[in-house]
């Protein structure tokens, strides 16, 4: 008996336009970088702005990745996500202040050890806070988007007020660890050491997240749950537990992003997370809700565009990201790399 013919489309059957359309989200970043080079003119300024934009984008990605996974898997619009950013920043900075001797030492090992302890503390506290937030605030309103918006915004306000009670109402200025201060010069461009570290941390985190989602069993369950939750439950998996785990992980990532953003800005406030939520939601929306790869591309686009526009025309910097989101959604209404859910 002869085998049934394979009717799947081959590479040759796919038109150039279709291949280009699929590849275009991945081409937007190099296209933007090249356009920025010609618009700025000076190679040294362009390189400095590009590194700054990549660093900003990586930190936004860290904060947005958890939010987009939570929405994609749990269908939860969590406006309280910004609270975890703020709490993470305050916990992390408190640890850095406690280890002031380490951060002030001219030793990279001691500096990075203090930062590591700050990150661990921030992720632990925000992960635990995320578990409580999901149990008490989010769980009763699953499936009701309007109620989710109302109660998560309320949760955000309550947590911000608790920050005022614990750490006081004033903003806290911080110094980066001694070996992360200053910049290095390359090809005539000054690149801050901390921004280079942020680029590296964001890139490693993206690779790790992608490997977990693509090559592990839990990652397979998460991706399958995003696309077809009822089928995953029908196969006997406790998707409810996966929901809670993803929410905790997303909250912990927000805490990590809060520490890194605080060191980036060198000042923290109770409302910093709330202000960051505008950029975080823009990234999650243009990337495609539920897509980590989309959030990564979207975050880099936002970071690069804001830095380029702020240099070329500062007055337009505030609206550049809204304009980017509008353009992306007019091109692809569901975002660049949306997760296709089963009907």
Automatic annotation (TrEMBL):
How does the UniProt record describe the way this protein sits in the membrane? Multi-pass membrane protein
UniProt keywords (A-Z) are:
Amino-acid transport, Cell membrane, Membrane, Transmembrane, Transmembrane helix, Transport
Give the record's GO CC terms. Answer: plasma membrane
- Pfam families per record: BPD_transp_2 (PF02653)
The biological processes this protein is annotated with in GO are: amino acid transport
Q: Which GO terms describe its molecular function?
A: transmembrane transporter activity
> What is the name of this protein?
High-affinity branched-chain amino acid transport system permease protein LivH
List the lineage, top down: Bacteria, Pseudomonadati, Pseudomonadota, Alphaproteobacteria, Rhodobacterales
């Amino acid at each position: 008996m002869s085998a049934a013919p394979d009717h799947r489309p081959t590479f040759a059957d796919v038109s150039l336009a279709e291949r280009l359309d699929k590849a275009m989200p991945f081409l937007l970043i190099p296209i933007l970088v090249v356009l920025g080079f010609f618009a700025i003119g000076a190679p040294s300024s362009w390189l400095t702005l590009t590194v700054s934009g990549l660093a900003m984008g990586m930190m936004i990605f860290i904060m947005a990745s958890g939010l987009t996974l939570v929405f994609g898997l749990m269908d939860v619009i969590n406006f309280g996500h910004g609270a975890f950013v703020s709490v993470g920043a305050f916990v992390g900075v408190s640890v850095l202040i406690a280890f002031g001797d380490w951060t002030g030492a001219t030793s990279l090992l001691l500096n990075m050890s203090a930062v590591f302890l700050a990150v661990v503390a921030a992720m632990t506290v925000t992960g635990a806070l995320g578990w409580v937030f999901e149990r008490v605030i989010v769980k009763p309103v699953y499936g009701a988007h309007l109620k989710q918006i109302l109660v998560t915004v309320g949760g955000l306000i309550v947590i911000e007020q608790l920050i005022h009670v614990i750490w006081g109402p004033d903003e806290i200025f911080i110094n980066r660890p001694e070996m992360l201060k200053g910049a290095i010069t390359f090809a005539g461009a000054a690149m801050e050491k901390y921004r280079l570290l942020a680029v590296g941390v964001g890139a490693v985190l993206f690779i790790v997240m992608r490997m977990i989602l693509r090559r592990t069993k839990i990652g397979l369950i998460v991706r399958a749950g995003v696309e077809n939750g009822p089928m995953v439950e029908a196969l006997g998996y406790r998707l409810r537990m996966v929901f809670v785990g993803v929410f905790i992980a997303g909250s912990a990532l927000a805490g990590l992003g809060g520490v890194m953003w605080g060191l980036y800005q060198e000042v923290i406030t109770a409302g910093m997370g709330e202000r960051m939520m505008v950029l975080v939601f823009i990234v999650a929306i243009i990337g495609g809700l539920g897509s980590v790869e989309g959030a990564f591309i979207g975050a880099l686009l936002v970071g690069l565009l804001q830095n380029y526009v702020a240099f070329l025309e500062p007055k337009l910097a505030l609206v550049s990201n809204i304009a980017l989101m509008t353009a992306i959604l007019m091109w692809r209404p569901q975002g660049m790399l949306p997760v296709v859910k089963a009907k």
